[in-house]
Amino acid sequence: MISPFLFAFCSTVGFCIIFHVPRRHIIPASLVGACGWLTYIYSVASNSGSVLGCFAASCIVALLSDIFSRVFKDAATIFIIPGILPLVPGANMYYTMLAILDRDLDKTALIGTETLLMAGAIAVALLMVTSIIRLVITLK
Amino acid sequence: MVNQIQKKVLILALQAGELMMKSGAEIYRVEDTITWICKACKIPYVEVFATPTGIFLSLDSGSEHSDMHTFIKRIKGSGIDLDKISRTNHFSREFANTDLTIDDGFRILKEIADRKPYPLLVRILGAALVSSFFALIFQGNISDFFCAFSVGACSYILSLLLDRLDTNLFLRGFFCCAVAAFLALGLISIGLGSNFSSVIIGSIMIFLPGVALTNGIRDTLAGDMLSGASKGLEALVIAVSLASGVGMAIEVWMLLGGAF
Predict the structure, then answer these.
(1) pLDDT cut 70: percent of chain B above it
(2) For residue A26, what are the contacts with CB-CB under 8 A and spacing of at least 6?
(3) Residue B194 gets which letter from DSSP?
(4) How many angstroms away from the CA of B102 is the closest CA of chain A?
(5) Which of B16, B58, B199, B245 could form a disulfide with B177 if both were Cys (CB 3.0 to 4.6 A apart)?
(6) Could you give the 3-state DSSP secondary structure of residue A88?
(7) Does A97 touch chain B (CB under 8 A)?
(8) Domain boundaries, chain A
(9) Is B130 near chain A, with CB under 8 Å?
(10) Does B165 or B260 have the greater pLDDT score?
(11) Mean pLDDT across the stretch A31-58?
(12) Burial class (CB in 10 A: 0-12, 13-18, 19+), B64
C-alpha cells in the first residue's frame, strides 16, 4: 500500500514542476494525485474494472481538490490538473498501439474502447462532483 | 466616439483573458474573469464568447447615444502554466473587490505575464521523476527506474528544443515518443533494463494530453460545444502522434533486426 502511494506522489510532484504549480501548493496537489491513484488501485483490485476505477478515483480527486481549494484559497484547477494526470490511460494507449502492431484488430478494439471510456469517466466524474458541490452550496 | 476609459477596460479584460487561455484555463473561468473585470469598472453590458483560439468581447455603456465596442483577440499557442492561472484569478477578484486603478491593473498583469516557469534543470528533473516513477508503477524494477529516468529527461529536452523551433503539435509528439521508444529499446538491448514496456509507458506519460482531454469533455458537457470540439480534437491529435511515434520506433527497431 505504501509503495504505490509513494510512487504516485513522486510522479505527481514531477507533473507539478512541469506545469508550474505554485511552490506552496506542490505538496497538497501531489497528495491529491496519490490519493486518486490509491483509489484506482483499490477499485481495480476489488474487481470493479478500470473504467469504474477511474470514475471513483476522479471523484476523490475532485472532492479533495475542492476541499484544498477552499483551505488554501486558490482555484480548484491548480489541484485537479496534477491530480488527474496519473489516471489518464497512457499505459492503455500503449497497449492499444502494441495490438495494432500485432495486427490484432479485436484486441485493438477492446483495449481502445476501454481507453476511451476511461478518459470519458475521468471527465464525467470531475464534472459531476463539481456540479453537485455547487448545487449543495446554492441550496444551503 | 470612442470612450477612452471603456477602451482601456476592454484591453485590460482581454489581456487577462488571453493570459488565462494561454495558460490552459477552462472556458468558463476565462469568461467569468473577463466579465468580473468589466463589471468592476461599472460597465453595464458585457458579452463574452471565448474559444481556445480566440476571444470575442462586446461592451456597451448603456446610454442612448453610446456606441458598442467589440474586440476580437486571436490566441495563438497554448501551454499549461497553473501559476499564471492562479495569479490571474487572484488578480481579477482583487480588481473587482478593491479600488485598483486600470493602470495598476496593466502593471500587475504585465508582472504575471513575465513570470518565468521553474528553472530548466528543475523542469527536466520533474519530467524524469514522472517517467521513472511511472515505470515503477507499471511493474518496472530498479534498473528500469534509472533507465526511464534518463529516457524521460532526454525526451523532455527534445520536446523543449522542438518547442523553440515552433514545430507543430503532431511532429513534436511524434518525434519525442519515437526517440523515447528508441532509447528505451536501445538501453534495454545493451542490458541496462529489463522491461521496455514500463520504460516506454513512463516516458509517454510526460506528453499525454490529459488536460486537453478532460477540459475538452468538460467544456462539451457544460455546453461550450465549439471549444469542447477543438480541445477534444487537440487531445486526439496528440494521442495519435504519441502512439504512432512509439509504433514507428518499435517497427523500425524490429526491421533493423533488434530484439523485441
Answers:
(1) 98
(2) A13, A16, A17
(3) S
(4) 23
(5) B245
(6) coil
(7) yes
(8) 2-139
(9) yes
(10) B165
(11) 92
(12) exposed
DSSP letter string, B54-93: EEEEEEE--STTPPPEEEEEE-------HHHHHHHHHHHH
Q: What span, in angstroms and rounded, lies between the C-alpha atoms of B69 and B59?
A: 5
**pLDDT tier, B242 (very low <50, low <70, confident <90, very high otherwise):** very high
Q: CB A20 to CB B205 under 8 A?
A: no
Interchain contact, A90 vs B89, CB within 8 Å: no
Task: Report yes or no: A35 at the B interface, CB cutoff 8 Å.
Answer: no
- Say yes or no to pLDDT of B1 above 60: no
ipTM of the complex: 0.88
What residues of B are in contact with residue A127 (Cβ under 8 Å)? Answer: 217-218, 221-222
**Mean pLDDT value across residues A21-36:** 92
AA identity, residue A49:
G
Here the cell at position B150 is 534518463
Residues of A in contact with B128 (CB under 8 A): 14
Contact B86 A93 (CB under 8 A): no
The owner of cell 486603478 is B101
* Helix-then-strand count for chain A, H and E: 6, 0
* Contact at CB, B218 and A126, closer than 8 angstroms: yes
> Cβ of A45 under 8 Å from any chain B Cβ?
no
Give the integer Cα–Cα distance in Å for B212 and B190. 37
pLDDT for A114? 92
CA distances from B36 to B117, B149, B151, B161, B163 (A): 27, 44, 45, 38, 34
Residue A138, amino acid: T
Mean pLDDT for the stretch of residues B139-148: 87
Q: Which residues contact B233 (CB under 8 A, 6 or more apart)?
A: B216
Taking the Cβ of residue A123 and every Cβ of chain B, the question of whether any pair is shorter than 8 Å is answered with yes
Pairwise CB contact (< 8 Å): A91 & B138? yes
- Tell me, what amino acid is at A89? P
- Mutate one of B84, B205, B251 to test the A interface: name it (highest A CB count within 10 A): B205
